[in-house]
Design brief:
InterPro entries: McjB-like, McjB_C. Pfam families: Transglut_core3. By secondary structure, this protein is an alpha+beta fold. It has a four-stranded antiparallel beta sheet with strand order 3-2-1-4. Helix 2 packs across helix 5 and helix 4 runs antiparallel to helix 5. It has five helices and four strands, in the order H-H-H-H-H-E-E-E-E.
Length: 146
């Protein structure tokens, strides 16, 4: 009950823009998760590329980028779906598609003692904005999804 009250309090404290971004993040996550489950990856990739295609780019204030990243992470944690790094990174990339120098990165963990583990994250100008990891873990970038 306390968690529910916390979420209601947080929702009420959001601005109109924050609520809109949160709802867009939730819808994007559900759409992306559904598409990843039902479509062959090649088809999903073409559809996602088409959806993210934009003729205009524009800088967005860091505050809005931070709000979008927060909304995607929070919605992913609240929705009753398993939304790991790839759907979160894809939703962030989609919602911030007009931001220049934004890339979705996919890498594998460099640790011979562990089994194969992949991770997806989003970078802006080389800095991780979504999907950060602890310093003790090292990922080798294998694919940049522009």
């Amino acid at each position: 009950m306390a968690t529910f009250k916390h979420h209601i309090t947080k929702w009420n404290s959001l601005s109109r823009e924050g609520k809109a971004i949160f709802l867009k993040a939730a819808v994007s996550l559900v759409f992306i998760k559904t598409a990843l489950v039902i479509l062959p990856f090649g088809t999903f990739r073409k559809l996602f590329h088409w959806l993210c295609e934009t003729r205009s780019t524009r800088e967005i204030a860091q505050k809005r980028i931070d709000l979008t990243v927060w909304a995607v992470d929070t919605a992913a944690n609240l929705l009753p779906l398993e939304l790991l790094c790839l759907p979160r990174a894809l939703a962030t990339k989609y919602l911030l598609r007009k931001v220049p120098a934004l890339t979705l990165e996919i890498g594998i963990e460099v640790n011979p003692a562990k089994q194969f583990e992949a991770h997806a994250w989003v970078e802006k100008n080389g800095a991780v904005i979504m999907g950060n990891w602890p310093e003790s873990v090292l990922y080798q970038r294998i694919w940049v999804w522009k």
